[in-house]
Design goal:
Shape: globular
CATH architecture of the largest domain: Orthogonal Bundle
Distance between the termini: 48 Å
Number of strands: 6
Structural class: alpha/beta
Strand content: 15-25%
Radius of gyration: 16 Å
Largest sheet: 4 strands, mixed
Strand order of the largest sheet: 3-2-1-4
Length: about 170
């Protein structure tokens, strides 16, 4: 049986719901996802967890998010507990390599993982990212410079890109 602790974090974007196992942060739900989506994901990923009141990792992720939203942090050190297919994990790791303030396209991301014809599957894996913000899928834009989709909604994507001063040409401001 795995252990799991959850918390809510009041961010400038709205309340984030965060879950952690002793291995690392396993899920961050953006405000638009709502409580049922978060609970449903946890039920599928960890069907019978031992519920813990708190894990020290939750304090660490809260501090790192505070620093990120204050523009004092450009990357995250908190351990993560990624759960996905090998392809998804490859994509999520490639997303982590996109520098703060930078953007890339789905096609470029596909090429970076050695799958140049997999732009759409890369987009699907990006959309299934369980750790938005920590794994910066908001930094991926469409090849033509448009924002494209985002699990938290385009307004949150715009806010994150603006925070990082990485506005896509002609899309923000």
């Amino acid at each position: 049986m795995e252990s799991l602790a959850t918390t809510e974090y009041p961010s400038p974007l709205g309340t984030l719901r965060i879950a952690a196992t002793p291995k690392g942060i396993v899920r961050i739900a953006l405000p638009r996802a709502g409580g049922r989506g978060f609970a449903g994901w946890l039920q599928r990923a960890l069907p019978h967890p031992e519920r813990l009141d708190w894990l020290p990792l939750l304090d660490k992720v809260r501090r790192e998010l505070d620093e990120y939203f204050a523009c004092q942090r450009h990357g995250f050190d908190v351990p993560v507990d990624l759960r996905g297919t090998p392809f998804q994990i490859d994509v999520w790791n490639a997303l982590r390599a996109i520098p703060f303030g930078g953007t890339t396209s789905y096609g470029a991301l596909a090429r970076s993982i050695g799958q140049p014809r997999a732009a759409r599957p890369v987009g699907a894996a990006s959309g299934a990212n369980p750790l938005p913000i920590l794994i910066p899928c908001h930094r991926v834009i469409a090849a033509g410079g448009k924002l494209g989709g985002y699990s938290g909604g385009l307004e949150i994507k715009r806010k994150l890109l603006a925070l990082e001063k990485a506005a896509a040409p002609g899309e923000l401001l």
